[in-house]
Design goal:
With 132 residues, the chain is mainly β. It has one domain: Beta Barrel (Cathepsin D, subunit A, domain 1). It is built from one helix and twelve strands, in the order E-E-E-E-E-E-E-E-H-E-E-E-E. The strands form three sheets. A six-stranded mixed β-sheet has the order 8-1-12-11-10-9. Strands 2-7-6-3 form a four-stranded mixed β-sheet, with no helix packed on it. A hairpin with a 2-residue loop joins strand 11 and strand 12.
């Protein structure tokens, strides 16, 4: 599993994470971001609560897309009260654009069309943090 219940109790070092960093998450239902400025567009959503891993309800502000220099994230939930961005592994793999591989200490994301390695990440306290 990529993310764990540890997300609900983040260590102090994670509170200093950039809003541009992403955590790979195998338990989420959608990509989730706290940074409205990183979206290419956002469609406002009715105030539907989204449950987090620690059973906290957070309001959904909108749904949109984020494009980073290496990855595209469609169908991203904008949740302003999140502490970090979550990239749902299932959503990445279901797009047929990416392959996600993990080991005990790191992970990588490969673009299937170009066959290029487009992202790597390090494991920190049961979480895989994608390098910028």
């Amino acid at each position: 599993m990529f993310a764990s219940p540890s997300i609900g109790r983040l260590p102090h070092s994670f509170s200093s994470m950039s809003c541009f960093e992403w955590v790979l998450d195998s338990g989420a239902s959608h990509h989730r971001s706290l940074d409205s400025s990183s979206f290419t567009f956002v469609s406002p959503s009715p105030s539907i609560p989204v449950m987090t891993v620690d059973d906290t309800l957070m309001p959904l502000a909108g749904v949109g897309s984020i494009i980073t220099p290496r990855l595209s994230f469609p169908n991203v939930y904008l949740i302003l009260k999140l502490k970090l961005n979550l990239a749902f592994v299932g959503q990445l793999c279901d797009s047929d654009d990416y392959l996600v591989i993990s080991s005990s200490s790191f992970c990588c994301v490969q673009d299937l069309q170009s066959q290029k390695l487009i992202g790597t990440g390090r494991k920190e306290i049961e979480l895989y943090i994608l390098d910028e």
